[in-house]
Amino acid sequence: MRRFIALAVGFLTLAPVSVVAADASIPVLVPITGFLSLEGTSQRNGALLAIKNAPAGVRVTYDVSDTGVAPETAVNALERAISRGPVTAVVASMLGTQMLAMLPVAQENKVPLVTVSGTASITERNNPYVFRFFPGDAVVKAAHIRYAAEELRARRAALIYQTTAYGQSGRQHLQENAHKAGIEIVFEESIEVAVRDMSPVLGKAKAANPDVLLLHLHAPSTALVIRQAAAMNLRLPIVSGSAMHQPPTAALLEPAELAGVCAETNASPVSGGTPEADRFLEQYRREFNAEPDGFALGQYDGVMMVLEAVAKGASNAAAVTQALSTGSHKGVAMTYRSDGKGNMAHSAVIVCYDGQTRVPRIAKRYDEILAVTR
Amino acid sequence: MIATLQNGRHGPLALGALLLVAWPLVFSTPYDLRVFTLAGIYALLVLGYQFVFGHAGALALTQGAFFGLGAYVTGILGARYGQGFLVTFPLSIALPVLLAAVVAAPVLRLETHYFALATLGIAQVLLLVCLLAEPLTGGANGIPGVPGVEILGLSLPRGWPLLLFVWAWVIAGAFVAQRITGGLYGKAFQLMRASATAAQCVGIDIARLRLRTFLFSAAYAGAAGALFVHTLRVVSPEALEFHVMVAVLAMTVVGGRTRIAGAIVGAVLLVHLPEWFRFLESYYLIAYGVALLAMIVLAPDGLVGELERRWPQAPETLPTAEPLPPRSKLIPREPLLAVSDLRKRFGGVRAVDGVSLALKRGEIVGLIGPNGSGKTTLINVITGLLQAENGAVRFAGEPLGGLRPDTIARRGLARTFQNLDLVDELTAIDNVAVARAAFEGAGLRQALLAVGRDPTLERARRQARFLLERIGLGEEMGRPCGDLPHGTRRRVEIARALALQPSLLLLDEPAAGLSESEQADLARRVEILRDDGITMLIVEHNMPFLMPLADRLICLNVGRVIANGTPEEVQADPRVIEAYLGRRGEQA
User: Fold this and answer.
1) Is A1 domain-assigned?
2) Which are the contacts of B162, defined by CB distance < 8 A and separation ≥ 6?
3) Is A210 on the interface with B (CB under 8 A)?
4) Which residue segments constitute the domains of chain B, with CATH numbers given?
5) First to last CA, chain A
6) Quick one: closest CA in B to A126, which residue?
7) CA dihedral (B273, B277, B282, B288) positive or negative
8) Of B145, B232, B278, which has the smallest distance from its Cβ to A65's Cβ?
9) Residues of B with CB below 8 A from A76's CB?
10) Low-confidence ranges of chain A (pLDDT < 70)
């Protein structure tokens, strides 16, 4: 009898790590249309690539739904996905307001949301079902300011940010970090996504006599500001938000216009650096005929963490939630683990353009910038 | 016993209602129930938008903003101050209505695209305020954690309870909309939409009517916004963005801009359509756009309008005729109409240049003159549609200067138009009945409090039949005016003017486009009206029609009276001959 129990215990103990056929259902609910379509497409591609590279024995079913930019569309998509049967995890929109709307539904249905949304207070609502695989503003904005203060020796900054949730959230963290770093914000202004002529705001920024220009804008606005700043010969170093690291954003600009421009992000896959990153870059290009960005890589790493949990025996949403909450995962961009609130990414990099090419180099890496102890 | 006028389409309507009830019973996953709940919220929003866009015919772009404002009121009070539904819901309606009342004064004066742009501006300002007032509104992040519906400690969960609650409000909203628009008061909306000028000239205060449609729209939008937030549990600036307005506009057009069933059909269909196309992934918006375009092209009057066209209403049973109640007589002062030194110019053109004339009670006076001589302008000034720069108009001894056209009309001064100004989709009988709105007490309170069919509409229809018979219309009075021949439509317009029980009737080219037999018939009717004591000023080019009728002719040329006398005197006046034919020398 003792032998039997020992065998049974041994079997149960080994079962989670032995890889047998496992099914996972991972709906991909991302903004493919609207002003976040660029980032949403990166999210989708990253998720699909991870599903394609699922660990041996893990069969994944998925479908992609466009969430647009309206919160109710995202919630509809989530409810629809949940109504179709058991869901292992959901790749959820990076738009903060959509995430906020999806959170209660995810909590009611006990389904983990895996996202790269860096904005809004999505991990501050005591919701155990949100997992963010892109460093939040607390992380990247700390890197943003530290680079300006420590590497560029900036003391007077002009700040231009977007009127969206992303913009307002970033602005708050930039202000807080600037204050700590001894940088005075001598000018700040928000601009709408639809604004095309940036010369008035750049003119006012220049008049404030800053020694660095901080941007926290979506991709189209970022490109417009940098182009018009180059045209105005502003002669200011620019440290941008993560939108600038995206290859499609750089493609909108001439290499010369990018001279002296840096940007924060979680990672820059096109810059290479590690064998894993190179493999990811090569496969992404082959699969999607496009250049990957940090959002794609973050989402890839997030879905891979889910799939590895499934491979290790997490057979349902509850088990995956538990694995994401307590485990760690060495991804392509960094090692991920939850801070207890669902913030999984704690590293950031600063990439800079040399004015010769549209491929940035990694200028500075900030690991565990907030000194996460878990 | 009054025969019913509404007797068609009960079958399709019952089938539609059955489908509506069956839908969530068949498709009842939490997702289906949620989408159907959202459809109900949009149906309520569209019901409100029908007032201003459908019934008033004004392209207001504020409906999305009122919706968002209602949503924010509930979001802020619910999430930040812990207030329950009984507090948040009334306030979510009240604040949009208050905003609508405040902005109405400047924007409701505007017309067409100016009105649309002004209302769009209001929506944009509200959105910006919401984005920038971060401490109150949460800025671009919005406010999460809005509670569900809580009434007296009882909270309503999502799914069936919330769906039924939302649709109960839709039914209540549809009922109120039906009461407001289904009776005589509603006919006034229809006339206002077809022709604001004609509405004014039958005594309808269109400024008040427009304001009310704007306020109704805001109230419905606020209610829908509140329910939306309780469903979503988050309020963010997306609720105020233009895409909400576009969705509402599309739903209203697709369903039918004035039909209550259209609001529900449009909302249910357009909320579900993107969901049905989801399998197309990134192409679903193209499919949605194509489907939307097809619906608008194939059913320009909306899907419900198209159904009505395919299954037309059975011919109406006409009401029995009822004479109009006697109207208090004007104090018999002479002259009935006195115009002195009236001047009106358009830029450098003196359209009316010092005109003075007088009409005695019971007279038929013909107003003639070449094209552009100022005849219609003179009538427009007398009836208040245009304001004179100088001079005075007195009617029964009372000055009319500065009075609105509807006030003048209600005093007993009626008119017809050179170009017929009727509502094509209304029957002849309803085109006339609507002119009784001001006299039968048709109004908001009466519409809301009426039990069963609107008694004022029934009475007005009986009176309309009496008037139409008087000018020679038979069974065709039950047909839509758009289907009637020109001569019949002329007579309908005269009957509509007679519904005001006027002392003075101004007829602008009444014989235009009539056959000889129709002209003879019209002349006979005009004589009967004179025998009834109605004074008439007839603008006419058709001399064979006018000469035997008129007691006196007044001839205008370049805005001035050049002759005034018996038809024979005026006809022989060399200045009149010169005005029509030119000088001998010029002819040579």
Assistant:
1) no
2) B33, B37, B148, B149, B156, B230, B231
3) no
4) 31-240 (no CATH), 337-446+454-587 (3.40.50.300)
5) 41
6) B145
7) negative
8) B278
9) 31, 34-35, 38, 275
10) 1-21, 119-120, 370-374
Site of tokens 């892109």: A134
Within B311-365, residue ranges assigned H as helices are none
- Helices of type H across B311-398: 375-382
Q: How far is CA B333 from CA A172, A231, A329, B503, in A?
A: 78, 80, 99, 12
* Test the B interface: residue of A29, A45, A67, A97 with most B CBs within 10 Å: A97
User: Which sign does the torsion angle of CA A251, A253, A254, A258 carry?
Assistant: negative
Q: Is the peptide bond before B335 cis (omega within 30 degrees of 0)?
A: yes
Percentage of residues in chain A having pLDDT higher than 70: 92
- Contact at CB, A64 and B275, closer than 8 angstroms: no
pLDDT value, residue B2: 36
* Cα-based angle B54, B266, B442 (whole degrees, multiple of 5): 35
Chain A residues touching B238 at Cβ < 8 A: 69-71, 97
Those residues of chain B whose CB sits closer than 8 Å to some CB in chain A are: 29-32, 34-35, 38, 128, 131-132, 134, 139-142, 144-145, 158, 228, 231-234, 236-238, 243, 274-275, 278-279, 281-282, 284-285
- B141 with A165: Cβ contact below 8 A: yes
Whole-angstrom Cα distance, residue B253 to residue B273?
Answer: 15
**Per-residue pLDDT tens over the stretch B202-248:** 999 999 999 999 999 999 999 999 999 999 999 999 899 888 999 99
Confidence of residue B328 (pLDDT cuts 50, 70, 90): low
What CATH code is carried by the domain that includes residue A143? 3.40.50.2300
pLDDT at position B412: 92
Containing structural domain, residue A250: 137-265+349-366
The answer to whether A123 faces chain B, any CB pair under 8 Å, is no
Distance from CA of A335 to the nearest CA of B (A): 29
Tokens of A130: 């949100």
Q: Are residues A353 and A333 part of one domain?
A: no
Residue among A63, A72, A119 minimizing CB distance to B38: A72
Would you state the pLDDT for residue B584?
54
Asked whether residue A8 is assigned to any structural domain, the reply reads no
Are the CB atoms for A206 and A212 separated by under 8 Å? no
Instruction: Give residue-wise pLDDT tens across range B282-295.
Output: 788 888 889 889 98
Closest approach of chain B CAs to the CA of A49, in angstroms? Answer: 17
Return the structure tokens found at B8.
């068609």
Which member of B140, B145, B281 has the closest CB to residue A66? B281
Q: Residues A28, A50: one domain?
A: yes
- For an interface test with A, the pick among B34, B35, B155 (most A C-beta atoms closer than 10 Å) comes out as B34
> Does one domain contain both A70 and A37?
yes
A68/A175 same-domain check:
no
Q: Is A96 on the interface with B (CB under 8 A)?
A: yes
Query: How far is residue B452's CA from residue B448's CA, in Å, rounded to a whole number?
Result: 11
Number of domains in chain A: 2
A373 inside domain: no
Tokens 């914000």, located at residue: A185
Q: What is the pLDDT of residue A4?
A: 45
Nearest in space to A261 (alpha carbons), one of A151, A360, A368: A360
Among candidates B134, B231, B234 on the partner chain, residue whose Cβ is nearest the Cβ of A97:
B234
ipTM: 0.77
CB distance A104–B31 less than 8 Å?
no
Claim to verify: residue A327 and residue A356 sit in the same structural domain: no
Q: Cβ–Cβ of B274/A120 closer than 8 Å?
A: no
Together in a domain, A109 and A54: yes
Kindly state whether residue A46 falls inside one of the protein's structural domains. Answer: yes
Are residue A122 and residue A146 in the same domain, yes or no? no
DSSP A50-77: HHHTPPTTEEEE--EEE-TT-HHHHHHH
Q: Is A111 found in the same domain as A59?
A: yes
